[in-house]
Amino acid sequence: MVLEEEIPTFAAWFGPALLTFLLTAALVILFVGLAAWVVQAVRDGPLAAGDRVYRGVLTGLQDLAGTSPRRVWALARLAIKEALRRNVLVVLGVFGLVILFAGWFLDPATVDPGRLYLGFILAATSFLVCTVTLVLAVFSLPADIKSKAIQTVTTKPVRTGEIVLGRFLGFAVVGTLLLGIMGLAGWGFVVRSVQHSHEIASLDVREVRDEEGGLTGFEGRTGPGRGHRHFLRLDAEGNGVAETFHGHRHPVTAQSQDGQLVFEVGSPAGILEARRPLRGTLRFLDREGRPAAKGISVGAEWAYRQYIEGGTAAAAIWTFEGVGEDEFPDGLPLEMTVRVFRTYKGTITEGIHGTVQLRNPSTQLRSEAFPIVAREFTIDELWIPRQLNTVLADGGVREADLYTDFVSDGRVEVWLQCLEPAQYYGVAQADFYLRAGDGSFAINYAKSCLGAWFAMLIVTAMGVMFSTFLSAPVALVSSLAVLLIGQFREFIARLFTSQVTGDASIAPGGGPIESLYRIVTQTSITLELDPTPAVQAMKLVDTVLLAPMRLAAGLFPSLATLGTGEFVAGGFDIPGDLLAAHAAETLAYVAAFCIAGAFCLRAREVAS
Amino acid sequence: MTPSNTAPAPSSDEVVIEARNLSKVYRDFWGRDKKAALKPLNLAVKKGEIFGLLGPNGSGKTTTLKLLLGLIFPTSGEAFVFGRPATDVAKNERIGYLPEESYLYKFLDAEETLDFYGRLFGMPPEERARRAAALIEMVGLGRDRKRQLREYSKGMTRRIGIAQALINDPELVLLDEPTSGLDPIGTREVKDLIIDLKQRGKTVVMCSHLLADVEDVCDRIAVLHQGELKELGRVEDLLRVTGVTQFQARDLAPAAYDAVRKVLAEHGASDIEIGHPRTTLEDLFLDVVRDTEARPGRRAQAAATPDKPAGA
């Protein structure tokens, strides 16, 4: 799976994140307070405006402090009843239809059916739940204000914060209920959809005998199923595996019936998994074997993967830490995804050959080279045994122990090299890892649903906040706009950094004005513009325009970054640190939206 | 509803509501003045009295109530309820409010409605259930307690609206057009209820443009017109016609009329009129209904005895 940035530990993430949150909150409060004062000052004069703003903030804070959980729950119950009696559960029927269509139109014969089904179900679930709760959230309060039912609530000892929190909580409960049901149904659908088996016809299997003619096993292929077949590796009793293909394998057992072996293929293994990887840090050597900051760029705009040239000394080297006998007693389960860039076609049906070697980072002792074939788009497995050979300086070979000879203070290096000249291997740091263990797929799936839950909470809180001062349709459009801008949060941040630092490689193409200029003049985004005074002025205007965009983008939530479906679909366990960071981010957004909503509702006349 | 008789007002000098130069100007989006709904108003309502805000449509009655409740903010001046600013939420603990129309949640039934509002006051479950049951019976919705409010008629909605205003047993009840949408029986019951509240020491502020309702129950009234206070005082003082004296007697024979006239004339009275007092249409209607309920099947005799006095 793609992992563009390392996932920090929660402890390392929390401090800077909290600081950013507090600074942003302070800036927003200052800005809003100033704006409120200016508006009041125009009407009532500066002193009276100051007094009003001060009293407004003070009583608002007092109201927040006086929030009663009982009243919040009463209002939440009302929101739940409102949603249920407006037939919100109809969305479950829509979800049923989605599953039905998915069953008809998704191709189970695809290379990675687990990714396809999981990706679709998780996206559909999140989209439906977020849409429903957003619509509920933005329409509820304006409807109450329009019908004036809000007047019978605000004339009770109810704080505006309680109204906002109650709405949010109620719709969040409804969203949670929907998510729970959809999550369970989606789980059942995915598990059933990836299930398949293969027949093994006797004609497809042949005996393997040793030199003395003794039966050592069987080989052959399974029959077709879901558009693929597996190679068989069976022992003399006929038991073994149908080897990994399309990301999964099958156990194979044999029974003797009437003197003949009948093979039975079990359920697929390896599709729905939750790998727990131990990741290392990546560095490169160039074609001369000298350290290089990066690998070779093959011209792809997305510079996630760097390439090494085949048939040279170029290498990609991962250094793993925390490798020990306790974690990996029998050897190292190395898993890898290697992309290929071909400068000539070669034998297109075959992969590109290369090697993997271990090296002791302290003694520089190297292991024998393990041959690999880069098959692309699949995760290849390489088991590095406990006992292996090492190549001596004189060219001799001796037996060595993994931990005694290659691991130093828990550190070991894994070298990847491409053997074929003029062909290239492309790798990123996350592409090589040691499989430290497996989590429960069910729990991982639940964790992913938790990501959808976080998104739903943020969307709901935002919808409620906008509905406190906007009419329902405007609140809906505003929420969607914020979510849309949030989706481009990372891009806008990169663009701003690129603009300020002048490093075009961070985000090529420049800001809005420069982009427009490039479109009109049909200038490639990778082409540097001559630094004429006009270009300089254009860049300056872009920086000025991007500054508020950067600030706004930093405020807006990005649901894409909260989504952890890629982990589950890719078969990786969602790290607890990531989940904790997402939970904290969600809490921050929900709290900010609820407080802002409470102040907005307090500032408006609900009966005018 | 509980019928009651009109007892003297147990009002005190404690001020429950106070408005000081309270005014409201509605503005448009750009902050330009659109309408002066209430011109500076000074007002005090004392504990235990029934206070009526009287005026035609658009006179500022409802605006005044909304300002007192903190539903809208004054353009200038101040409003205090129980000595607290009108925008203070804490004052609502002691207030019951019936809006102009019963703006309630249509997807709830009567029990759920009262349970919801009871929860907002933090009432314990047993008390909520007890109060809700008693109020539903009081407003005569016992048989409709499980129906969603969207199925209610206007009168029924009004009744449940009154019940929600009383769920917390408030010290101050603000009623906006309390008899609007009610039939004469309901109207009488509401008026009886208002008087009953007063007897229990509650303060009631009601606004209405139905003059008879205000006259029947209010101790004091304020008359508003075009957002301005025009009259303020006790009902009996404002309605008293000075210079005219009225006598009443039961079973006086027509033969005595001349003698009475002569005596009055001897004392310098002029414009002497003697005749039978009129009952109100409301009393007549209620008598007919009660009579019909007491003796089902009995035919109405109004056409046969057009001059029959009320209550006969």
Any descriptors?
heterodimer, A: 608 residues, alpha+beta, Jelly Rolls, six-stranded antiparallel beta sheet, 16 helices, 21 strands, B: 312 residues, alpha/beta, Rossmann fold, six-stranded mixed beta sheet, four-stranded antiparallel beta sheet, 10 strands, disordered C terminus
Can you describe this structure?
The complex is a heterodimer of chains A (about 600) and B (about 300). Chain A has about 600 residues and is an alpha+beta fold. Chain A folds into 3 domains: about 10-195 and about 440-605, no CATH class; about 200-265; about 275-440, Jelly Rolls (Sandwich). In chain A, about 50% of the residues lie in helices and about 20% in strands. Chain A has helices at about 10-45, 45-65, 70-85, 90-105, 115-145, 150-155, 160-195, 400-405, 440-465, 470-485, 490-500, 510-520, 535-555, 560, 565-570, 575-605, and strands at about 205-210, 215-220, 230-235, 240-245, 250-255, 260-265, 275-280, 280-285, 290, 305-310, 315-320, 330-335, 340, 350-360, 370-375, 380-385, 385-390, 395-400, 410-420, 425, 430-440. In chain A, strands 1-2-3-4-5-6 form a 6-stranded antiparallel β-sheet, with no helix packed on it. Chain A has a 6-stranded antiparallel β-sheet with strand order 9-8-11-19-14-15, with no helix packed on it. In chain A, helix 7 runs antiparallel to helix 16 (about 575-605) and helix 9 packs parallel to helix 16 (about 575-605). The longest helix of chain A is centred in the N-terminal third of the chain and has 35 residues, at about 10-45. The radius of gyration of chain A is 30 Å and the shape is globular. In chain A, about 35% of the residues are buried. Chain B is an alpha/beta fold. Chain B folds into 2 domains: about 15-240, Rossmann fold, CATH 3.40.50.300; about 245-310, no CATH class. Chain B contains 9 helices and 10 strands. Chain B has helices at about 60-70, 110-120, 125-140, 155-165, 185-200, 210-215, 235-240, 255-265, 280-295; strands at about 15-25, 35-45, 50-55, 75-80, 85, 95-100, 170-175, 205-210, 220-225, 230-235. In chain B, the strands form 2 sheets. Chain B has a 6-stranded mixed β-sheet with strand order 6-7-8-3-9-10, with helices on both faces. Chain B has a 4-stranded antiparallel β-sheet with strand order 2-1-4-5, with helices on one face. In chain B, strand 1 and strand 2 form a beta hairpin. In chain B, helix 2 packs across helix 3 (about 125-140). The longest helix of chain B has 16 residues, at about 185-200. Chain B is globular. The two termini of chain B are about 25 Å apart. Residues about 1-10 and about 300-310 of chain B have low confidence and may be disordered. The interface between A and B is medium-sized, with 34 and 34 residues.
